Amino acid sequence: MATNEIFDRGQELALVATDPTTPASGDPILVGQIPAVAVAAKDATTSKTPCKMEGVFDLSVKAVDGGGNSAVAVGDIIYYVSADTPKLSKKTSGVRFGYALEAITSGATDTIYVKIGY
Predict the structure, then answer these.
(1) What percent of the chain is helix, strand and coil (3-state, nearest 5)?
(2) How far apart are CA 87 and CA 116, in angstroms?
(3) 1 band by pLDDT with thresholds 50, 70 and 90
(4) Torsion on CA atoms 21, 22, 27, 31, rounded to nearest 10
(5) CA-CA distance, 45 to 57, in Å (whole number)?
(6) For the chain, what percent of residues have pLDDT higher than 70?
(7) Which of 54, 117, 108, 101 lies closest to 86, judged by CA?
(8) Contact between 47 and 31 (Cβ < 8 Å)
(9) Does 6 or 118 have the greater pLDDT score?
(10) What is the rounded CA–CA span in Å between residue 28 and residue 85?
(11) Average per-residue pLDDT for the chain
């Protein structure tokens, strides 16, 4: 093992979330351009949120893209758009978040499995 290795796999770390700044457990979040899901509330002392940057999570996704309503298919790339509710969709103007593992009808919002990362 390298003597400068800090974390074995780095799958779960406590980091400062940039959006939202005070996430709840289970929220999709960004740490700069890094997609993650909060696994606990933000620590008031350190301002860091325990989060996972790998895995599959059940998350709210809206079936829209930059042109309007657009069905989500299994394997579609999902993006995080800070200004939207819910934050996840097919809008390429956002930060790449992961992949849809379930489908959603065009224009609908549903909670589906999303694989974080790319």
Answers:
(1) 0, 45, 55
(2) 14
(3) low
(4) 30
(5) 27
(6) 94
(7) 108
(8) no
(9) 118
(10) 11
(11) 94
